[in-house]
UniProtKB/TrEMBL annotation:
InterPro entries: Glyco_trans_2-like (IPR001173), Nucleotide-diphossugar_trans (IPR029044). It comes from the Bacteria. Pfam families: Glycos_transf_2. This is Glycosyltransferase 2-like domain-containing protein. It comes from Algoriphagus boseongensis.
């Protein structure tokens, strides 16, 4: 069995692959695989013609981020000890893959780890997805060192440490193959967005830790599939967040949190209406509606050893209150 496979999920990446794939090939030691989610552009031909060293797995349909990785990684089961999942719009740095794998191999109680993720467009700033390590508040809202809601910090080496976090970003995530398959991978019902946070939550409930290494960095373009302001992305985040909470919390706790979240997010939906963003408002309502109509597909996470559960490690209980009411815009202010 080989140590690691770098695995990139592609869907219609004809424009981004020529920009970002060369850095992965140049700076990586391990095998590079691309899982193609039934692209309809010329990206498959581009890969075959210009990047013959890259291995290719072709899926027959677009299964989204979650299903695409699940089906593709199944093809690699038993061949690699670790999977380094990488977005197609990420530029990597020298020895990035070796340093991540070396760290994980030396920390047996950790299931997954991410590097420092910086913006490709503004390389002195953190990226939205993962930044300097991700946490969850009590309502399931994610936030990061270096990024709280839409407030992005400059990178001044303030997060160059290695710490335990609540979740690892799917933009660049090293995970042990055994842990991935033990959890049956990502929840394919999510399709896209929040699936890596859900997987990390399930890993923590099983007693496995999630890490962050600030000594390794990559640059993420972001928004290659959906922009952050896209109503479809908002819809997926709303629906999938509710699904994640439903799966991973005790039933009574879930309904208490659900009630508070619904008050906050319905108020947000009204705000979208008053600001003329009707499609975003519809996305919020649709997210709740679709969660209710499909919640039976989300299976409760079974906790085998309650004494091993890894709790949330973030500094605040309600990030919404700190950001919007107390006006704390940076992680250091928390």
């Amino acid at each position: 069995m080989k140590s690691c496979a770098i695995v990139i999920l592609n869907f219609n990446g004809e424009k981004v692959l020529p920009i970002f794939l060369p850095s992965v090939i140049q700076h990586s030691k391990f095998d590079i695989w691309i899982i193609d989610n039934a692209s309809t552009d010329q990206s498959l031909q581009l890969i075959k013609n210009n990047f013959p060293e890259v291995h290719l797995i072709q899926l027959k349909s677009n299964f989204g981020f979650a299903g695409g990785y699940n089906w593709g990684l199944e093809e690699l089961r038993g061949k690699y000890a670790n999977f380094l999942l990488l977005n197609s719009d990420v530029e990597v740095s020298l020895d990035w893959d070796q340093n991540l794998v070396s760290w994980l191999e030396n920390h047996e109680d950790f299931a997954a780890v991410q590097p420092k993720i910086l913006s490709w467009q503004e390389k002195n700033k953190f990226d939205y997805a993962g930044a300097g390590g991700g946490f969850l508040d009590a309502l399931g809202y994610p936030y990061c060192r270096g990024r709280i809601w839409n407030s992005i910090e400059e990178d001044r080496n303030q997060y160059n440490d290695s710490i335990q976090v609540d979740w690892s970003s799917g933009a660049c995530m090293l995970i042990r193959a055994d842990d991935f398959f033990e959890q049956e991978g990502f929840d394919a019902h999510f399709f896209a967005h929040m699936e890596e946070i859900d997987l990390c939550w399930r890993l923590r409930l099983s007693g496995r830790k999630i890490g962050y290494i600030g000594g390794v960095h990559v640059f993420h373009q972001g928004g290659a599939t959906l922009s952050r302001s896209n109503p479809k992305k908002l819809y997926l985040n709303i629906r999938n967040s509710l699904g994640m909470l439903y799966k991973n919390l005790p039933t009574i706790t879930f309904f208490l949190i659900f009630t508070l979240k619904m008050v906050l997010e319905m108020a947000s939906a009204l705000g979208y209406i008053f600001s003329g963003e009707k499609e975003s408002s519809k996305a919020v309502f649709r997210g709740y509606s679709d969660f209710f109509s499909t919640r039976s597909v989300y299976h409760k996470t079974k906790i085998k050893r309650p004494d091993l559960v890894i709790s949330r490690s973030g500094p605040v209980r309600f990030i919404f209150w700190h950001f919007f009411v107390l006006r704390k815009k940076t992680f250091s202010q928390l």
